[in-house]
Amino acid sequence: MGKDKKIIDGPELRRRAERQMQTTPEDSEEIAGMSTKDMAKMIHELRVHQIELKMQNEELRRIQEELEEARDRYSHLYDFAPVGYLTINEAGIVEGANLTFATMLGVKRSEVVGKPFSRFIQREDQDVYYLHRQRILESGDFKSFRLRLVKNDGSDFFSNLECMIVKESDSDPKQIRVVVSDITEQNELEWRLRQAQKMEAIAKLAGGIAHQFNNALFVITATTDLLELQVPKEEITSEYIASIKKSTARMTHLTRQLLAYARGGKYEVKDISLSKFVRNTLPLLQHTLDPSIQVETHLPDDILKTRGDLPQLLMLFSVILSNAAEAIDGEGHIKITCRSEQITKKGAKAFPGLLPGAYVSLAVEDNGTGMDGETKKRVFEPFFTTKFLGRGLGLAAAYGIVKNHDGWISIESQLDHGTRVCIYLPSVSGVEVKKALKPHSEPLKGIGTILLIEDESAVIEMLRKLLERLGYHVIEAQTGKEAIRLARAFDGDIDLAILDVFLPDMNGNKIYPLLKEFRPDLKVLVFSGYSLDGPAQEILDAGAHGFLQKPVSIEVLSEKLTELLQAG
After folding, report:
1. 2 domain-assigned
2. Residues 284 and 407 reside in one and the same domain
3. How many domains does the chain have?
4. Is residue 439 in a domain?
5. What is the pLDDT of residue 79?
6. Are residues 300 and 192 located together in one domain of the fold?
7. How far apart (Å, rounded) are the C-alpha atoms in residues 556 and 438?
């Protein structure tokens, strides 16, 4: 923009004209020699010019008023725009800023203008600023980049800077015009989305690893079960077997956690009251807490209903409660709250993957040491811990369990001010809690023919030996095509099929309807190193009669087979 030109008012214009006439005396001599007619004509012309000047003056006054109104509007828009505006010279000094930018920083405008812009940038981001400023000055190109700016109270916020060079002429110094947007919320959402995507990628890998572990653990479990049935309890060998079984149980628990993290931790989903679940579970877990820690609960009965897998929810609650207790050094308190929540479309945007609707929430709040920013960012990573002796999946497993239940987990924490973990689970209308069947101490014998459909040779061999030990006749298939051929061609009854979810040529959800086509009365037990999720659930939804997850003991296996074969 060029420099503003001052509009000359009427009196000043007259004074200048009189001075001009004084400098031209020849004009006065010419007027003195004019005739009356010429004089009248000149007066007429002067009057016309006078009217013209008056009209021009009025128009100029109107334009001036409009310009002043426009300037006021521009000033208002500039100062109160939803984004910050500022002008920086080549030396990096702020030459101008709007009120919005000053408000972002929590300072007066006078505390910004005349100061180096770098003063308001987070120390770790200043190199980024200097680099981009130099590039802008050298190239003159438009640039957009992100920085953390520091407020007057010492806190920072994420901002996006859009910069361009302004230069009115070659002789004028360069200026950088900057538009500043507060993108703290956007940056947080982007981070959550990236975190969720990273977790999903790791979870997929974890699920595959857990599946392979479970297959191997089944072979170990089956072998120890068979040995235990043959070795008298009083022999020293039985102690070794017991030690193997104990270690196997620990590994099985770890793979359960791994599958939970991998969004594959559901075994049997039921309708439950979240408040009742917490109230019944808390006494079992509270004895593990330091007696100096006080636990406060707010657990209404009438509204808090959800659908979930009880063992997984127990693991979830245990992890969160133990983390809260470990964060407390000495005396402290933990507050547990259940409530109904309505998540709106706007609210759901803060939780990637969460759908709007009715939820129940479980919040566990402690007054412990809290977390710093880096810990909060990594707390859901597998095997991450701030404790020297810590191990396991911890909150990573909790994250997987919640996601597996179509919910969300959030953490609010500040160093020396405690932590609040809040879990959101979809709400349901009805409640029905069923008690799980307990296996008999001794395996139950049975009769009949079982079609074993499994692709891993070691698993087939051990499972066949278990089934034969229980009294069953076994026929085997290592592919889907072979299983279908046996179902069609086997001369005799097949009482039950044990079906793995994944086979080399086709998955179990493709095999199941073909089995039922040739043997409509065939009962099918889904058997997988994964858990009740995805393809396994699809087979059950199609009509399969039960599910078992590897590894499984001979007692549990016999119990399940008896239950299915004796059912009508």
Report:
1. no
2. yes
3. 5
4. no
5. 79
6. no
7. 8
Q: What 3-state DSSP class applies to 499?
A: strand
Structure-token pair, residue 409: 């987990």
R_g (Cα) of the chain, nearest Å: 40
Residues 71 and 91 in one domain: no
Say how many CA atoms lie within 13 Å of 396 toward its Cβ: 24
What's the maximum distance between 2 C-alpha atoms anywhere in the chain?
151
DSSP-assigned states of every residue in 515-531:
HHHH-TT-EEEEEESS-
Domain annotation covers residue 438 = no
Q: What is the rounded distance in angstroms from the CA atom of residue 164 to the CA atom of residue 136?
A: 7
62 in the same domain as 150: no
Question: Region 86-105: what's the mean pLDDT?
Answer: 92
Strands (E) located in 129-174: 143-150, 156-166
Q: Would you state the pLDDT for residue 362? A: 92
Q: How far apart are CA 128 and CA 276, in angstroms?
A: 54
The region, left, alpha or beta by phi > 0 then psi within -120 to 50, assigned to residue 135 is alpha
Q: Kindly state whether residues 422 and 388 are assigned to the same domain.
A: yes
Helices 310-326 + 395-404 axis angle, to 10:
150
Residue 154 CB neighbours (<10 A): 7
Contacts of 240 (CB under 8 A, 6+ apart): none
Range of the domain at 71: 10-79
d(CA 489, CA 515): 12
> E strands along 382-504, which residues?
408-413, 419-426, 449-453, 473-477, 496-500
Query: What is the separation of C-alpha 36 from the centre of its chain, rounded to a whole number of angstroms?
Result: 95
Report which DSSP code applies to 114. Answer: T
pTM: 0.48
Query: What is the C-alpha separation between 466 and 278, in angstroms, rounded?
Result: 38
Quote the tokens at residue 216. Answer: 């191997």
Q: What is the mean pLDDT of the chain?
A: 81
How confident is the model over 194-252, as pLDDT tens digits? 776 766 666 666 666 777 778 888 888 888 888 888 877 777 777 888 888 888 877 77
Look at the block and give the residue holding tokens 């009057």: 47
pLDDT in tens, 406-437: 888 888 888 888 899 999 999 886 434 344 44
Exposed e or buried b for every residue in 53-90, given b needs 16+ CB within 10 A?
eeeeeeeeeeeeeeeeeeeeeeeeeebeeebbbbbbee
- Interstrand relation of 332-343 and 293-298 (parallel, antiparallel or unpaired): parallel
Asked if residues 158 and 184 have their Cβ atoms less than 8 Å apart, the reply is: yes
From edge to edge, which strands make up the β-sheet containing 546-549? 473-477, 449-453, 496-500, 523-528, 546-549
Say if CB 465 and CB 222 are below 8 A apart. Answer: yes
C-alpha dihedral, 449 to 455 to 461 to 467, nearest 10°: -30
Closest CA to 323 of 376, 274, 256: 376
Residue 1 lies in a domain: no
Structure tokens at 314: 């127990």
Q: Which residue has the tokens 């030396």?
A: 91
**Interatomic CA distance for residues 166 and 51, integer angstroms:** 43
Greater pLDDT, 356 or 171 = 356
Q: Are residues 335 and 372 in the same domain?
A: yes
Give the end of a domain, one of 226, 261, 296.
261
What is the rounded CA–CA span in Å between residue 255 and residue 265? 10
* Single residue among 79, 108, 130 that ends a domain in this structure: 79
280/328 same-domain check: yes
